[in-house]
Amino acid sequence: ALEVGRDLGRAMLNARALERERELVRELKALDDYKSKLIATLSHELKSPLTAMLANIELLQHGEDLDPSASEVLAAVDRGAVRLVRVVEDLLLLAKVGDPHLPLLTRPVPLHDVVDDVVNLTSIADQRRVSVDVVGDLDDMVALGDPAEMDILVTNLVTNAMKYSGAGSPVTITLARAGEWVVLSVQDCGIGISPEDRHQLFREFFRSDSAQVKAQPGTGLGLTIVDRILTRHAGRIEVDSELGEGSTFRVFLPAP
Ligand code: ADP
């Protein structure tokens, strides 16, 4: 009877611990939902006055009789506002692709076209340093996904490759098939990433603590957005990098 009593007591304790754990998970989830809603609401509220601010700055900049010191101040305000708009836009995007209730509408997306569009939107100098390799049949380089999200994903990876490697340093984009996956690799010969930083790359707002990174504009949200888009698409990402040598980001997306 003593043994049975002990077993019963243990089972009750286990059940209580399990219930406490479930409650904690529910609370954490509610907090996370609250955080996402707060970020989305704040970003929405910030966007319109910021856009109006930018328009007004432009108006003033084109006005007559602007003395040089006022013009300098205005340029600084403009830079600040542009940076804020970038943060707000990234926050809105993150709230969107991080929302588990947002339906994913997929269709076959020719990745070569997405890459072409992204590269064509960069400066002529940047276009010169990019090469695009297709390993295999071009018709096979089709992923099942949301075209707008594919565009964001490729844009963020290619922009990073450009930002974190010197002007003129080559960037290679490769498309290949691996079984049921289409693999998009973006390789640069830039500053590289330390092993400690590699673990944190996909965390919200993470930026490496180096002068070369700080010298570039950025929000630390680009790779978080990439990661959320991949989660939505049941894809994944691998990173190979050597400090001072360069980095390769390899994305696996489902083929139709
Ligand atoms: P952002 O570029 O806006 O800072 P990301 O989320 O895109 O933010 O990247 C996070 C950080 O990861 C960057 O600040 C940088 O430290 C590092 N990183 C990303 N891509 C590269 C790359 N190709 N080479 C070196 N470091 C990179």
From TrEMBL:
Organism's domain of life? Bacteria
Query: What are the residue boundaries of the Histidine kinase domain, all occurrences included?
Result: 41-256
From the Swiss-Prot or TrEMBL record, state where the protein is found. Answer: Cell membrane
Name listed for the protein in its UniProt record: histidine kinase
Question: Which stretch of the intact protein is present?
Answer: 352 to 607 of 607
